[in-house]
Design brief:
Blueprint (H helix, E strand, L loop, with lengths): L1 E2 L1 H15 L14 E9 L5 E10 L4 E5 L6 H8 L7 E6 L2 E2 L5 H6 L1 E5 L10 H5 L1 H5 L4 H14 L16 H13 L5 E5 L7 H18 L2 E6 L2 H7 L2 E6 L3 E6 L1 H6 L4 H7 L3 H5 L14 E3 L4 H7 L4 E5 L5 E6 L21 E4 L4 H9 L5 E5 L5 E6 H13 L11
Parallel strand pairs: 1-15, 4-9, 4-10, 7-8, 8-9, 12-13, 15-16
Antiparallel strand pairs: 2-3, 2-5, 5-6, 10-11, 13-14, 16-17
The protein binds adenosine-5'-triphosphate.
Adenosine-5'-triphosphate binds next to helix 2.
């Protein structure tokens, strides 16, 4: 049985980053909030890339810009550090008008991470990380020590320090990119599709570690992606942009899934949004008690205890081991039930977990009864898919999110 906690853990990991805010103080001083005030970008050829954008990226949180290709995500991001100058409107960093801060000064407090990491191929990893401190004439020994500490933080082994970028995998290079952006301890980080160039498995790892890192660092982050799943996973808030640089909706992931502002957002968020919204709903579905047998019980005992042909088998710590089926093919009732003859089933639901986790457990259980465990993995009871769906329907009726794409 797989414990469904991985997903649940990811969700709570992100929530932790937004609820227990670490103090976002750095050598650049203070907490940083980014505010777009009627910002427009019209390129010389007349293309309006960003149109009258007003939004706030709160301090210490991850704001994700998401939308289809060409909707102005990168342009919006680069206007924050003045790599692109707005044609109209103002971008504020706390109470500072960024248009009045010299770009070099501004960028010292803003880390920048891009796709493919943008590392210098002929410099070692360590030298890549300390590029900016070296340029600024900082103490080299201190910068190296900081770089080594950051390498550890982003999950890179110290032995990579003297390697060159081409000797690292794509995922490792992205970690170097993140370490380099963090070296000056900027309160603000701009990240432009930083995880897009790696395969899905590495990408998932990088996302998890990024959330963990952010829960420790509490930077103000603006993150660009074209991938709605990444936006929902990483964002404390998500700005959905439409072509022409128009803000279609700014909302928390849960709100976006439950109440898309218009058909464009609904279409972009996807047809399974109801199911995904369940990943944010932590309603408790009452569990039913269930007769279990212990590993080592006899087949006859298992058959007697079974309900609808299945009985749950637990170990001495009351931790579920799998389901025993009365039609398992063993005809000797005195034989012991061993793990080898159990159906391991699907995911386990955790008490107090999300409705999605609970529904997954019910749908993936061979007995049709989802197994619910407590935080320590001990068996608490079962729920059926029908019970979870009834709960979901009650939520939908109460208007707590859009109609779920789940049927009985
Ligand atoms: N220097 C430029 N001159 C003219 N038009 C530009 C320039 N840079 C970008 N654009 C246009 O502005 C619009 C927004 O581009 P931008 O790169 O910000 O979009 P994006 O949402 O980041 O796209 P993608 O996801 O494809 O990277 C696009 O129509 C693009 O073609």
């Amino acid at each position: 049985m797989r414990n469904g906690n991985a997903e649940h853990g990811a969700t709570t990991g992100r929530r932790r980053s937004s609820t227990s805010q670490p103090t976002n103080r750095s050598e650049h001083g203070g907490v940083r909030m980014i505010k777009f005030d009627s910002v427009t970008k019209r390129y010389p050829d007349g293309t309006v890339a960003v149109n009258d954008l007003s939004l706030t990226a709160p301090s210490g949180q991850i704001t994700v810009f998401v939308g289809p290709s060409g909707c102005g995500k990168t342009t919006s991001l680069r206007m924050i550090n003045r790599m692109i100058e707005p044609s109209g409107g103002t971008i504020w960093l706390d109470d500072q008008d960024t248009g009045k801060v010299p770009p070099a000064t501004l960028r010292r407090g803003i880390g920048y991470v891009i796709q493919h990491a943008g590392l210098f191929p002929h410099r070692t990893i360590l030298d890549n990380i300390i590029t900016v401190p070296s340029l600024l004439g900082h103490n080299k020994k201190q910068a190296r020590a900081k770089a080594m500490e950051l390498m550890e933080r982003v999950g890179l082994e110290a032995r990579f320090a003297e390697r060159y970028p081409a000797q690292l995998s794509g995922g490792q290079q992205q970690r170097v990119g993140v370490a380099r952006a963090l070296v000056a301890d900027p309160p603000v980080m701009l990240m432009d599709e930083p995880f897009s160039a790696v395969d899905p498995v590495v990408r998932e790892q990088l996302q998890q570690e990024f959330l963990r890192l952010q829960s420790e660092l509490g930077k103000t982050i603006v993150f660009v992606t074209h991938d709605i799943d990444e936006a929902i996973k990483l964002g404390d808030q998500v700005a959905v942009l439409n072509v022409g640089g128009v803000l279609a909706q700014l909302a928390s992931p849960a709100e976006l899934l439950s109440h898309p502002a218009n058909s464009f957002v609904a279409g972009f968020v996807g047809r399974d949004r109801g199911y995904r919204a369940l990943g944010f709903a932590t309603d408790t579905v009452p569990v039913r008690s269930e007769t279990t047998v212990a590993v080592g019980a006899t087949v006859a005992e298992g058959v007697r205890a079974a309900e609808d042909g299945w009985v749950l088998v637990v170990d001495s710590a009351n931790s579920p081991q799998g389901w025993f089926n009365v039609d398992h093919g063993v005809h000797d009732g005195s034989m012991q039930i061993t793990p080898a003859i159990l159906n391991l089933g699907g995911t386990l639901a955790t008490e107090g977990g999300t409705l999605r986790n609970t529904l997954d457990a019910a749908l993936s259980s061979p007995s049709g009864r989802g197994v619910v465990v407590d935080e320590d993995g001990r068996f608490r009871g079962t729920v059926t898919a029908a019970e979870v769906v009834a709960r979901i329907e009650a939520r939908a009726a109460a208007g707590r999110y859009g109609a779920p794409a789940v049927s009985g």
